[in-house]
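Expect chain and fold; thus:
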Amino acid sequence: MPTRDYREDLLQRLADSQYAARYLKAALDETLSDGNTEAFLLALKNVVEATGSTQKIASESNISRQHLYRLLSGDGNPTLETLTSVLQAVGLTIDFKPSLKESKDL
């Protein structure tokens, strides 16, 4: 039985915006629970790579390609404005909902 390349398979699945949204949500939830932004930035980098060329996404985000690469590195620290512009360029947005803790308190 032939094996599939994990990265290739992941990028193919991330081309679906519904899958990409769930993937980023899981990465953000992890970041919110442990404070480590590296997992979220790696997930965002994977989504950017899956949806088009980095140059195209940078252009649509109105940032330089180099800035996008720095932003998506494990040490990146995007502003909210930059994050939302990159998300918009890949066809996604930020969505908020009550946390489970808040839902139980209501």
In short: DSSP finds seven helices and no strands in the chain. The two ends are 52 Å apart (CA to CA). The chain has one domain: 6-91. The chain has a mean pLDDT of 89.
